[in-house]
Fold:
Amino acid sequence: MLGQQFEREIREQPNVWCGIAQSDKAERLARAIGERPVLLVGSGSSLFMGQLGALALRRRGIRAVALAATEAHFDHVAYRDACIIALSQSGRSIDLLAALDILMPSTLIALTNDANSPLAARATHVIALDAGPEKAVPASKSVTAMAAILLWGAACVAGNSTRSAQTLVQTATDVRDWLDGSNAEPVVAAAQRIARRRSVIIVGAGYGVPIAGELALKLKEASYVHAEGFAAGEFRHGSSAVLDASCAIVGIVDDASRAFVERPLTAARDAEAARFVIGSPVGDLPLLGARTGDAFNTLAWLVAGQYLALWTGRARSVESDAPRGLSKVLL
Structure:
Protein backbone atom coordinates (compact mmCIF):
# COMPACT_ATOMS: atom_id res chain seq x y z
CA MET A 1 0.00 0.00 0.00
CA LEU A 2 1.38 3.41 -0.98
CA GLY A 3 1.90 5.99 1.76
CA GLN A 4 2.08 3.52 4.64
CA GLN A 5 4.37 5.74 6.72
CA PHE A 6 2.27 8.81 6.02
CA GLU A 7 -0.88 7.00 7.12
CA ARG A 8 0.80 5.63 10.25
CA GLU A 9 1.86 9.14 11.26
CA ILE A 10 -1.58 10.57 10.54
CA ARG A 11 -3.09 7.97 12.88
CA GLU A 12 -0.54 8.69 15.62
CA GLN A 13 -1.65 12.31 16.00
CA PRO A 14 -4.36 11.90 18.66
CA ASN A 15 -1.78 10.31 20.96
CA VAL A 16 0.57 13.25 20.37
CA TRP A 17 -2.18 15.69 21.37
CA CYS A 18 -2.90 13.72 24.55
CA GLY A 19 0.79 14.06 25.42
CA ILE A 20 0.59 17.82 24.90
CA ALA A 21 -2.52 17.94 27.10
CA GLN A 22 -0.50 16.41 29.95
CA SER A 23 2.35 18.91 29.53
CA ASP A 24 2.99 22.57 30.35
CA LYS A 25 4.04 23.48 26.79
CA ALA A 26 1.21 25.95 26.19
CA GLU A 27 1.74 27.67 29.54
CA ARG A 28 5.48 27.97 28.89
CA LEU A 29 4.82 29.47 25.48
CA ALA A 30 2.43 32.01 26.97
CA ARG A 31 4.95 33.00 29.66
CA ALA A 32 7.71 33.39 27.08
CA ILE A 33 5.52 35.68 24.96
CA GLY A 34 4.07 37.78 27.77
CA GLU A 35 2.32 40.79 26.27
CA ARG A 36 4.98 41.62 23.70
CA PRO A 37 4.46 41.86 19.93
CA VAL A 38 5.48 38.60 18.28
CA LEU A 39 6.85 37.58 14.89
CA LEU A 40 6.29 33.94 13.87
CA VAL A 41 8.74 32.65 11.25
CA GLY A 42 8.70 29.42 9.28
CA SER A 43 8.54 27.81 5.85
CA GLY A 44 6.03 25.48 4.23
CA SER A 45 3.70 23.84 6.72
CA SER A 46 5.44 25.67 9.57
CA LEU A 47 4.61 29.00 7.93
CA PHE A 48 0.92 28.11 7.70
CA MET A 49 0.94 27.15 11.38
CA GLY A 50 2.67 30.45 12.09
CA GLN A 51 -0.18 32.24 10.33
CA LEU A 52 -2.67 30.28 12.43
CA GLY A 53 -0.82 31.15 15.64
CA ALA A 54 -0.52 34.82 14.71
CA LEU A 55 -4.26 35.04 14.14
CA ALA A 56 -4.96 33.33 17.46
CA LEU A 57 -2.71 35.82 19.25
CA ARG A 58 -4.22 38.82 17.48
CA ARG A 59 -7.68 37.69 18.52
CA ARG A 60 -6.46 37.99 22.08
CA GLY A 61 -5.02 41.47 21.68
CA ILE A 62 -1.38 40.54 21.02
CA ARG A 63 0.22 42.15 17.98
CA ALA A 64 1.46 39.20 15.96
CA VAL A 65 2.38 38.54 12.35
CA ALA A 66 3.80 35.59 10.42
CA LEU A 67 6.70 35.91 7.98
CA ALA A 68 8.05 33.38 5.49
CA ALA A 69 11.65 32.61 6.40
CA THR A 70 12.60 32.93 2.74
CA GLU A 71 11.26 36.52 2.66
CA ALA A 72 13.24 37.79 5.65
CA HIS A 73 16.00 39.06 3.36
CA PHE A 74 13.50 41.45 1.76
CA ASP A 75 11.29 42.24 4.76
CA HIS A 76 13.15 42.52 8.05
CA VAL A 77 13.75 46.13 9.05
CA ALA A 78 10.52 46.50 11.05
CA TYR A 79 11.14 43.22 12.88
CA ARG A 80 14.68 43.72 14.17
CA ASP A 81 15.08 42.87 17.86
CA ALA A 82 11.59 41.34 17.99
CA CYS A 83 10.35 38.43 20.05
CA ILE A 84 10.35 35.66 17.47
CA ILE A 85 8.70 32.24 17.50
CA ALA A 86 10.68 30.10 15.06
CA LEU A 87 8.73 27.09 13.79
CA SER A 88 10.52 24.06 12.37
CA GLN A 89 9.92 20.32 12.47
CA SER A 90 13.61 19.53 12.11
CA GLY A 91 15.19 22.67 13.55
CA ARG A 92 17.73 22.40 10.73
CA SER A 93 16.24 24.40 7.87
CA ILE A 94 18.95 26.60 6.36
CA ASP A 95 16.27 29.07 5.23
CA LEU A 96 15.02 29.53 8.79
CA LEU A 97 18.47 29.77 10.36
CA ALA A 98 19.51 32.35 7.74
CA ALA A 99 16.37 34.37 8.45
CA LEU A 100 17.24 34.49 12.14
CA ASP A 101 20.71 35.80 11.27
CA ILE A 102 19.02 38.71 9.49
CA LEU A 103 16.24 39.32 12.02
CA MET A 104 18.48 39.20 15.11
CA PRO A 105 15.68 38.52 17.63
CA SER A 106 15.87 39.87 21.17
CA THR A 107 14.05 36.73 22.34
CA LEU A 108 13.94 33.52 20.33
CA ILE A 109 11.31 30.88 21.09
CA ALA A 110 11.96 27.64 19.22
CA LEU A 111 8.97 25.41 18.52
CA THR A 112 10.60 22.30 17.07
CA ASN A 113 10.43 18.52 17.07
CA ASP A 114 14.17 18.25 17.78
CA ALA A 115 15.33 19.77 21.06
CA ASN A 116 18.95 19.05 20.06
CA SER A 117 18.82 20.88 16.74
CA PRO A 118 20.79 23.98 15.69
CA LEU A 119 17.61 26.03 16.08
CA ALA A 120 17.14 24.84 19.66
CA ALA A 121 20.77 25.62 20.45
CA ARG A 122 20.22 29.27 19.47
CA ALA A 123 16.94 29.72 21.30
CA THR A 124 16.16 31.59 24.50
CA HIS A 125 13.25 29.19 25.10
CA VAL A 126 12.84 25.72 23.56
CA ILE A 127 9.41 24.10 23.40
CA ALA A 128 9.78 20.60 22.03
CA LEU A 129 6.84 19.27 20.04
CA ASP A 130 7.56 15.69 21.20
CA ALA A 131 5.64 14.36 18.20
CA GLY A 132 8.02 11.44 17.77
CA PRO A 133 9.94 10.51 14.62
CA GLU A 134 8.31 11.76 11.44
CA LYS A 135 9.62 9.90 8.41
CA ALA A 136 7.11 10.62 5.65
CA VAL A 137 8.02 13.76 3.73
CA PRO A 138 4.54 15.35 4.07
CA ALA A 139 4.53 16.59 7.67
CA SER A 140 1.56 15.59 9.81
CA LYS A 141 2.29 15.06 13.51
CA SER A 142 4.59 18.05 13.81
CA VAL A 143 2.03 20.29 12.08
CA THR A 144 -0.88 19.52 14.38
CA ALA A 145 1.40 19.57 17.43
CA MET A 146 2.45 23.12 16.49
CA ALA A 147 -1.19 24.09 15.98
CA ALA A 148 -2.27 22.67 19.34
CA ILE A 149 0.50 24.42 21.29
CA LEU A 150 0.06 27.74 19.50
CA LEU A 151 -3.72 27.82 19.87
CA TRP A 152 -3.65 26.76 23.50
CA GLY A 153 -0.75 29.12 24.23
CA ALA A 154 -2.70 32.05 22.75
CA ALA A 155 -5.63 31.20 25.02
CA CYS A 156 -3.29 31.11 28.02
CA VAL A 157 -1.94 34.57 27.16
CA ALA A 158 -5.47 35.92 27.48
CA GLY A 159 -6.41 33.82 30.50
CA ASN A 160 -9.05 32.05 28.41
CA SER A 161 -10.01 28.56 29.60
CA THR A 162 -11.93 27.48 26.48
CA ARG A 163 -8.85 25.64 25.26
CA SER A 164 -7.72 23.26 27.96
CA ALA A 165 -6.30 19.81 28.55
CA GLN A 166 -9.85 18.50 28.66
CA THR A 167 -10.94 19.99 25.33
CA LEU A 168 -7.71 18.86 23.65
CA VAL A 169 -8.16 15.28 24.89
CA GLN A 170 -11.78 15.31 23.73
CA THR A 171 -10.67 16.43 20.27
CA ALA A 172 -8.11 13.61 20.24
CA THR A 173 -10.84 11.13 21.14
CA ASP A 174 -13.20 12.42 18.43
CA VAL A 175 -10.52 12.26 15.73
CA ARG A 176 -9.26 8.83 16.83
CA ASP A 177 -12.80 7.46 16.73
CA TRP A 178 -13.28 8.92 13.26
CA LEU A 179 -10.04 7.43 11.94
CA ASP A 180 -10.85 4.02 13.41
CA GLY A 181 -14.49 3.96 12.29
CA SER A 182 -16.40 3.86 9.04
CA ASN A 183 -16.93 7.63 8.95
CA ALA A 184 -13.59 8.02 7.18
CA GLU A 185 -14.92 6.16 4.14
CA PRO A 186 -16.34 9.33 2.47
CA VAL A 187 -12.76 10.65 2.28
CA VAL A 188 -11.71 7.64 0.19
CA ALA A 189 -14.66 8.18 -2.14
CA ALA A 190 -13.90 11.90 -2.40
CA ALA A 191 -10.26 11.15 -3.16
CA GLN A 192 -11.28 8.96 -6.10
CA ARG A 193 -13.24 11.86 -7.57
CA ILE A 194 -10.57 14.48 -6.83
CA ALA A 195 -7.85 12.34 -8.39
CA ARG A 196 -9.51 12.83 -11.77
CA ARG A 197 -9.78 16.61 -11.43
CA ARG A 198 -7.49 19.18 -13.04
CA SER A 199 -7.40 21.43 -10.00
CA VAL A 200 -8.59 21.59 -6.39
CA ILE A 201 -9.65 24.78 -4.63
CA ILE A 202 -9.76 24.88 -0.83
CA VAL A 203 -11.56 27.80 0.79
CA GLY A 204 -11.94 28.89 4.39
CA ALA A 205 -12.39 31.99 6.50
CA GLY A 206 -10.81 33.01 9.81
CA TYR A 207 -8.79 30.07 11.09
CA GLY A 208 -9.79 28.25 7.92
CA VAL A 209 -7.55 30.45 5.74
CA PRO A 210 -4.13 29.13 6.90
CA ILE A 211 -5.63 25.63 7.11
CA ALA A 212 -6.73 25.93 3.48
CA GLY A 213 -3.17 26.82 2.50
CA GLU A 214 -1.75 23.89 4.42
CA LEU A 215 -4.24 21.39 2.97
CA ALA A 216 -3.51 22.61 -0.55
CA LEU A 217 0.19 22.03 0.14
CA LYS A 218 -0.56 18.50 1.37
CA LEU A 219 -2.50 17.65 -1.77
CA LYS A 220 0.34 18.88 -3.97
CA GLU A 221 2.96 16.96 -1.97
CA ALA A 222 1.09 13.70 -1.62
CA SER A 223 -0.81 13.43 -4.91
CA TYR A 224 0.74 15.92 -7.40
CA VAL A 225 -2.73 17.43 -7.98
CA HIS A 226 -2.69 21.18 -8.48
CA ALA A 227 -4.34 22.74 -5.42
CA GLU A 228 -4.68 26.27 -4.04
CA GLY A 229 -5.97 27.60 -0.74
CA PHE A 230 -7.98 30.83 -0.59
CA ALA A 231 -9.80 33.07 1.81
CA ALA A 232 -13.39 32.22 0.86
CA GLY A 233 -14.48 35.84 0.45
CA GLU A 234 -11.46 36.78 -1.64
CA PHE A 235 -11.85 33.77 -3.94
CA ARG A 236 -14.99 35.38 -5.33
CA HIS A 237 -13.03 38.49 -6.35
CA GLY A 238 -11.72 37.14 -9.63
CA SER A 239 -10.31 33.70 -8.89
CA SER A 240 -13.71 31.99 -9.05
CA ALA A 241 -13.46 32.32 -12.85
CA VAL A 242 -11.31 29.16 -12.83
CA LEU A 243 -14.22 26.99 -11.66
CA ASP A 244 -15.60 24.47 -14.10
CA ALA A 245 -16.47 20.78 -14.23
CA SER A 246 -12.79 19.83 -14.23
CA CYS A 247 -12.31 21.32 -10.74
CA ALA A 248 -13.11 20.28 -7.20
CA ILE A 249 -13.68 22.62 -4.27
CA VAL A 250 -13.39 21.86 -0.56
CA GLY A 251 -14.94 24.29 1.91
CA ILE A 252 -13.71 24.47 5.50
CA VAL A 253 -16.80 25.35 7.49
CA ASP A 254 -17.63 26.28 11.07
CA ASP A 255 -20.45 28.41 12.44
CA ALA A 256 -18.42 31.62 12.27
CA SER A 257 -17.32 31.15 8.67
CA ARG A 258 -20.40 29.48 7.18
CA ALA A 259 -21.82 32.55 5.41
CA PHE A 260 -18.47 33.30 3.74
CA VAL A 261 -17.71 29.71 2.66
CA GLU A 262 -21.16 28.85 1.35
CA ARG A 263 -20.94 31.55 -1.35
CA PRO A 264 -18.05 30.02 -3.33
CA LEU A 265 -19.60 26.58 -2.81
CA THR A 266 -22.75 27.87 -4.48
CA ALA A 267 -20.72 29.32 -7.34
CA ALA A 268 -18.98 25.95 -7.70
CA ARG A 269 -22.36 24.21 -7.98
CA ASP A 270 -23.33 26.47 -10.84
CA ALA A 271 -19.97 25.70 -12.49
CA GLU A 272 -20.56 21.94 -12.05
CA ALA A 273 -17.41 21.50 -9.96
CA ALA A 274 -17.23 18.62 -7.47
CA ARG A 275 -17.95 19.95 -3.95
CA PHE A 276 -16.98 18.75 -0.48
CA VAL A 277 -16.86 20.21 3.02
CA ILE A 278 -14.67 19.77 6.08
CA GLY A 279 -15.81 20.77 9.57
CA SER A 280 -19.59 21.21 9.59
CA PRO A 281 -22.30 20.02 7.18
CA VAL A 282 -23.55 22.13 4.29
CA GLY A 283 -26.71 20.72 2.80
CA ASP A 284 -26.13 17.27 1.35
CA LEU A 285 -22.48 17.83 0.40
CA PRO A 286 -20.09 15.03 1.44
CA LEU A 287 -18.65 15.83 4.89
CA LEU A 288 -14.99 14.86 5.26
CA GLY A 289 -13.44 14.51 8.70
CA ALA A 290 -14.41 14.26 12.34
CA ARG A 291 -16.84 16.64 14.00
CA THR A 292 -15.56 18.00 17.28
CA GLY A 293 -15.85 21.02 19.56
CA ASP A 294 -14.80 24.50 18.49
CA ALA A 295 -11.77 24.77 20.81
CA PHE A 296 -9.47 22.59 18.69
CA ASN A 297 -11.58 21.94 15.57
CA THR A 298 -8.65 23.10 13.42
CA LEU A 299 -6.81 19.89 14.37
CA ALA A 300 -9.67 17.81 12.99
CA TRP A 301 -9.64 19.90 9.80
CA LEU A 302 -5.94 19.26 9.35
CA VAL A 303 -6.29 15.50 9.81
CA ALA A 304 -9.19 15.36 7.34
CA GLY A 305 -7.06 17.16 4.75
CA GLN A 306 -4.05 14.94 5.38
CA TYR A 307 -6.20 11.83 4.97
CA LEU A 308 -7.71 13.22 1.77
CA ALA A 309 -4.23 13.92 0.38
CA LEU A 310 -3.08 10.39 1.29
CA TRP A 311 -5.98 8.71 -0.51
CA THR A 312 -5.83 11.05 -3.50
CA GLY A 313 -2.17 10.09 -3.84
CA ARG A 314 -3.09 6.41 -3.69
CA ALA A 315 -5.75 6.93 -6.37
CA ARG A 316 -3.07 8.48 -8.57
CA SER A 317 -0.42 5.81 -7.72
CA VAL A 318 1.81 8.36 -5.96
CA GLU A 319 4.18 7.24 -3.21
CA SER A 320 3.34 9.97 -0.73
CA ASP A 321 5.98 8.82 1.76
CA ALA A 322 8.65 10.15 -0.61
CA PRO A 323 7.24 12.55 -3.23
CA ARG A 324 9.45 13.34 -6.20
CA GLY A 325 11.92 16.20 -5.82
CA LEU A 326 11.34 16.61 -2.07
CA SER A 327 13.24 15.72 1.09
CA LYS A 328 12.35 15.90 4.76
CA VAL A 329 14.82 18.70 5.49
CA LEU A 330 15.65 21.46 3.01
CA LEU A 331 19.32 22.39 3.39
User: Anything to note?
Assistant: The mean pLDDT is 95. The longest strand covers residues 247-253. DSSP finds 13 helices and ten strands in the chain. Residues 41 and 67 are 5 Å apart (CA to CA).
